[in-house]
Design a protein that fits this description.
Length: 885
């Protein structure tokens, strides 16, 4: 939506709808140039609201006719302005008939009803339904839908909508029809239709209650061989939700449809999930281990929304994390359970923590910082964020940490018992957890209402005489826009103590044996906890399992960290110790490089760190997947977050130096682990095989960070002989990073082989965009490639966003060329697709952290975008907040 003066919407101003909708009957005559939509609503006045005006939303649609209780309304009976249709005086019970027209082929926003590759799709969350027909388009208006679709049969042989297929048949004029009925109330954002030329894989699946359900995965012809993993993931998700939470599929069928033009990863429309092809299509030839993992997680996420989001939905968009944070947590637990081992669970947890550190913590510290439950927004699409999703999941996880798995299940059961088929608030979920477990969670509400990442500082003191260890915990939270002062959070802090041999001590607090790990509840600004019967100086393992989304500060020495890195029984904290060791070196070397005019000459990495990396690399008692995570250095972006006045080139030089030094000094061990972790035989995406490939490929990456003839030949051989995309892409990445001439030839071979596979071409663009040798001129040249288009979100993200967000050394080129490029592309994308443009605009969120010379140029680029006369609300909100805060 584009307005000259964007309106800020506040949570405190919520009012219930004046009229409720009981039923919706929709008729579509589908044509790309002119789709006619007939809409028949039955409404009744809401006793919880005052007034008699019916307010409907509509955007980019033409009103043809409007009838109320059989009477055609004249202009005096209603007002149509500012994307709102208001009927001023209405009776208590209303039958409202609306005829309107939209033009799907011109809808480049991919919101509402649009055409992609000749097929019709919809995306209605958050406010896309209003681009289809006039409607009270808000999540607390829930109704039952019946949908008639009519279209040319030859062009659109498949007609799908929500719920169950009631009737289908042919019409006289070469068209056909399908009638769909959804038996459950839903908000308009969960409406979906598809009219397309597609094929499907389908299976009948026996549910726990004995019913049979039809499962379908619909794709374009030629992609059917890439649907099996999505189907298996769907079946596993259904069974897991039955067993874990007693939640069953409530429809006769469940459909997944894949499209290449999609703003998001996927959408949980009731019974008809529409997916980005990225999260459906996979086979060993075209998809990596990470792709397979993403498909499993996203299929699960959208299916789990059937209950946490569809059956119980949000009262308003401020409550978005009610469904998204909860469902992310559920898909995280599903992923861990599918792996089924303790180490596997730990590795998935490490992935989650890395995501928080790399993306969510910077958001909390930037101009777009907002609580998990925001208090205001200009454009709701800007709040589909890592704070709402991933931090929201951490808030849900803390309930389970506090109450245990059984207590959390009791809370879930009570939540559904109270709120099935209702639109509710985050506070309703919190109350269900509190009531089910007999606890007061009033203070816990601050996790929803306060923005920012809390800082948790610990101080430990061992009393040799009294045999006690006193742990002092101190919390604070930095100011964020609109919230200068913060009250203490309710923080669960999981703690262990290690003895000199690296073994867990038994923890006794207040005469209660708490086992090897105690969950302490910090509710004050400062609290002290005393462990008794501690007979030797321990090393504290604080925040085990990353028990709360906080920044941990404490007086760890290198010796402490090496002890934890070698022995901690908590894999997350063992990994964390290694990250702290690496970060201290990265910061030191970045400072030295900057002081030397961004020269890597005379930098030195201590033997202590190299030896720590050597030990974890060769430790055969550790799972390969964990060793790969432990060897992975913090990203350049994570290092930059620790520095004021960031010099991106200095950070890049420091990180590349450490990688090269590891590659040179551990060459023998890396080669040995490469050979030891080969996975001969047919490819399998299982966790054990994927872990071996991950360790093998990080070894290859380190070897080529300090390339010699042997390491380059090894990468070339893997590239030539690989029978799966994981190894093929890893080898290509190693060649690109080694900056050898062979890389250009490999890129050409890769493109020629996979030019017909859109998702692989995305990878081809992305690897080049993120390479530190790729400057703005090279990106501009790639934009002229015949395979590139800004109109497709996946392709735009693979090149333009990948360069601006994943190539810091070139994006932050001292001449400002990266920032000028960013401004051009934000403006160009905003004219096509504001959601994609606003996400690209976020690349400049943290401009104030950089060196003054860079700041000046970044500010100028932001002002250039802000000065455009016809910006969407999506982009205007982002750049305005960036400049203001």
């Amino acid at each position: 939506m584009r307005t000259d003066t964007p309106q800020t919407i506040y949570r405190k101003d919520y009012n219930p709808p004046t009229y409720l909708v009981d039923t919706v009957e929709l008729g579509f005559d589908l044509d790309p140039a002119r789709t006619v939509v007939a809409n028949r609503l039955t409404l009744r006045r809401n006793p919880a609201a005052g007034g008699r005006a019916i307010e409907l939303h509509g955007e980019e649609i033409e009103l043809v006719a409007l009838r109320l209780n059989g009477k055609t309304l004249a202009g005096a009976d209603y007002t149509l302005a500012d994307n709102r249709l208001v009927i001023h005086e209405a009776p208590d019970d209303v039958v409202l008939e609306i005829e309107s027209v939209c033009v799907p082929e011109q809808n480049t926003t991919l919101s509402g009803l649009y055409v992609s590759n000749g097929n019709f799709f919809t995306q209605c969350e958050a406010e896309g339904f209003r681009r289809i027909t006039y409607f009270p388009d808000r999540p607390d208006v829930m109704a039952k839908y019946t949908v008639m679709l009519r279209a040319d049969k030859a062009r659109y042989p498949v007609l799908l909508s929500n719920g169950n297929l009631i009737q289908e048949g042919d019409l006289d004029d070469g068209r056909h029809y399908a009638l769909w009925e959804d038996p459950f109330k839903k908000p308009s954002y969960l409406f979906a239709l598809v009219a397309a030329k597609l094929v499907c894989q389908e299976e009948t699946f026996r549910l726990a209650d004995g019913r049979d359900a039809l499962l379908q995965v619909w794709v374009e012809d030629g992609n059917l061989d890439k649907t099996d993993y999505a189907m298996q993931s769907l079946k596993h998700s259904i069974r897991w939700d039955e067993e874990k939470y007693g939640l069953e599929l409530d429809l006769d069928r469940f459909m997944i449809v894949a499209t290449s033009d999609f703003n998001m990863g996927a959408m949980e429309n009731k019974g008809l999930n529409i997916f980005n092809t990225k999260f459906v299509l996979a086979n060993p030839r075209v998809a990596t281990d990470v792709d397979f993992q993403g498909i499993e997680a996203v299929v699960a996420h959208e299916y789990f929304h059937n209950w946490t989001g569809n059956r119980v939905t949000c009262r308003d968009w401020f409550q978005l994390s009610l469904k998204e944070g909860l469902t992310v947590f559920r898909d995280q637990e599903f992923t861990a359970d599918m792996i089924g081992t303790d180490t596997g669970r730990a590795v998935t947890r490490i992935d989650q923590v890395r995501t928080l550190r790399q993306h969510q913590f910077p958001e909390d510290a930037g101009p777009m910082a907002h609580p998990v439950r925001p208090d205001s927004f200009v454009e709701i699409n800007n709040f589909y964020t890592v704070t709402v999703y991933e931090k929201g999941a951490e808030v849900v996880r803390m309930y389970q940490t506090l109450f245990g798995v059984d207590g959390f299940r009791k809370g879930m059961d009570l939540y559904f018992e109270r709120h099935d088929e209702q639109a509710v608030e985050c506070d309703d979920f919190r109350r269900a957890m509190a009531d089910a477990n007999g606890r007061d969670l009033t203070q816990f509400e601050r996790w929803y209402s306060q923005a920012g990442t809390p800082v948790l500082r610990f101080e430990g003191r061992w009393d040799e005489t009294a045999h006690t260890y006193t742990l002092k915990l101190i919390q604070s939270c930095p100011p964020t826009p609109g919230q200068p002062q913060k009250l203490p959070f309710h923080i669960p802090v999981a703690v262990g103590l290690l003895d000199a041999a690296g073994n867990d001590m038994r923890l006794v607090v207040d005469s209660v044996d708490r086992g090897a790990t105690a969950v302490l509840e910090l509710t004050q600004a400062e609290q002290t906890f005393v462990f008794t019967d501690v007979k030797e100086q321990p090393v504290a393992s604080v925040l085990r399992g990353f028990s709360a989304p906080v920044v941990l500060q404490g007086s760890y020495t290198d010796a402490d960290l090496l002890h934890l890195f070698s022995h901690d029984s908590d894999p997350v904290n063992r990994w964390e110790a290694g990250q702290r060791l690496a970060m201290s070196r990265l910061l030191k070397l970045a400072g030295e490089a900057a002081a030397k005019g961004n020269s890597g000459a005379s930098l030195n990495l201590d033997e202590t760190f190299i030896e720590a990396m050597r030990k974890v690399l060769v430790d055969e008692t550790l799972d390969p997947a964990f060793r790969e995570q432990a060897l992975l250095l913090p990203s350049e972006g994570m290092v930059a977050e620790q520095i004021d006045g960031v010099d991106p080139l200095a950070v890049h030089i420091a990180r590349q130096f450490i990688r090269a030094d590891i590659g040179a000094r551990l060459r023998g061990e890396l080669l040995a682990q490469y050979e030891a972790n080969l996975t001969p035989g047919a490819y399998s995406p299982d966790a054990a095989s994927a872990g071996k490939r991950a360790l093998k490929n990080i070894a290859l990456s380190y070897l080529n960070a300090a390339p010699d003839d042997e390491s380059v030949a090894l990468a070339q051989r893997q590239f030539d002989e690989a029978d799966n995309m994981t190894d093929r892409a890893a080898a290509l990445g190693a060649l690109i990073a080694s900056r050898v001439p062979e890389a250009a030839d490999a890129l050409d071979v890769f493109y020629q082989e996979f030019q017909g596979e859109a998702l692989v071409v995305d990878k081809w663009f992305m690897m080049q965009a993120a390479a530190p040798t790729t400057d703005v001129a090279a990106v501009r040249a790639l934009m002229r490639h015949p395979a590139f288009t800004l109109r497709n979100p996946n392709r735009a993200r693979s090149l333009v966003a990948a360069f601006c967000m994943n190539n810091p050394v070139q994006f932050h080129a001292p001449d400002g060329s990266g920032y000028a490029f960013w401004a051009e592309q934000v403006i160009a994308l905003d004219a096509l697709n504001p959601q994609v443009a606003s996400r690209l605009a976020r690349a400049m969120d943290r401009w104030r952290r950089y060196a003054p010379a860079l700041q000046e140029q970044m500010k100028a680029a932001l002002q250039r975008v802000a000065g455009q006369g016809k910006l969407s609300n999506d982009v205007r909100e982002v750049v305005t907040k960036a400049l203001a805060n």
